[in-house]
Amino acid sequence: MLNSVEELIADLRRGQMVVLIDDDSDSHSEGVVMVAADFITPDHVNFMARKAKGLVCLALTRERCVQLNLPLMAENTQAEKNNFTLSIEARHGIDTGISAADRALTVQVAVAPNAKPEDIVQPGHIFPLAAEQGGVLTRAGHTEAAVDYARLAGSSPTAVIADILAAEGHLADGDGLREFAKQWGLKIGSIAELIHFRLKHERTVKRVREGAIQTAHGDLYLVAYQDQISRLIHIALTKGAIQAETSIAVRMHVQSTLRDLVGTQIAEVTSWDTHSAIEYLTQQPAGIAVILANDESSDSVLHSVDLALGNRDAILPKQHPSYSRIGIGSQILKDLGVSKISLLGAPMKYNALSGFDLEVNCFIEPGGKVTRVEES
């Protein structure tokens, strides 16, 4: 049994730790222990290092990272990866930096209201993570959930988190996370429930245009959505009646100028292109293609050219971070009335989809191979 969002918020307001897991219905959930960074103490750090056993990290907003002049450790991480910045240490008042007291002080210095870049040095023993703007409605990750929870608890939107490991050293799963919370008397909640909570009051995308259109694949209904954070426009093309009780064929497609206009392909990489996906969808009783905008720069287009020419070592330039986040697409599908999904793409795990009232039933790869979720 999980605790409610309100119960977790209440404990966080008292400076207590809580456990966050991906999804209440997923036995393969991963989890972290967190505390609002405003309340951090050496005891919190010691507990995370000795009991949770994961890396002690500091979840920050992008604005705080800019305030501290913290660049990302690596640009262009994929949607499911964490956005680590350079590691940090408080400039003054610490010894080696690794002790619980030193790490707690580093966090206190970094989250102080008037913190400046000169207050910290790199590298260090605290590992900041940059949360995506929009929080769990953009990316359903532990970093974003921790920042959202700290903000909802009335603290600064900063949190200290650590992955929870099982005794054998691997990431604890759903049952193990519940046992961990019970053992240490901690409230436990899911990212999915936090998404539910936020969706009652807010959205980060909204409809701006819609109507019937004619395409090379037949008549479709178009709905244009604007991302309220990036201001990018995303397009949904629908065919047939969308019914919550019926599994709908869905393709989530990230815009790429060269691939979409020319149809370029990369050797040894098999994936749906826009035209084949839409053609497949129009042959189904109902289907949706969501084309997620990608704020492509000239360097990004040139990177696509390099890949098409066979240069697999081409360096991907910096891109707008939000285009590949599933939270945007999930909000669009929820708005369109989708509940069950037959997803065009390779099998993979998507965090906390139940928070958007969405469920992936199967994955459909090019060529028609179907993988049921229980098989994946």
What does this structure look like?
This protein is of the alpha/beta class and 376 residues long. The chain has two domains: 5-199, DHBP synthase (Alpha-Beta Complex); 205-375, Rossmann fold, CATH 3.40.50.10990. It has helices spanning 5-13, 42-52, 62-67, 100-111, 142-152, 174-183, 191-199, 257-262, 274-282, 298-308, 326-335; strands at residues 18-21, 31-36, 53-60, 88-90, 120-130, 159-164, 187-190, 205-215, 218-227, 233-239, 247-254, 287-292, 340-344, 359-364, 370-372. Residues 320-324 have low confidence and may be disordered.
Task: Chart the SSEs and their pairings.
Blueprint: H1 5-13, E1 18-21, E2 31-36, H2 42-52, E3 53-60, H3 62-67, E4 88-90, H4 100-111, E5 120-130, H5 142-152, E6 159-164, H6 174-183, E7 187-190, H7 191-199, E8 205-215, E9 218-227, E10 233-239, E11 247-254, H8 257-262, H9 274-282, E12 287-292, H10 298-308, H11 326-335, E13 340-344, E14 359-364, E15 370-372
Parallel strand pairs: 1-7, 3-5, 11-12, 11-13, 13-14
Antiparallel strand pairs: 1-2, 2-6, 3-6, 4-5, 8-9, 9-10, 10-12, 14-15
Helix pairs in contact: 2-4
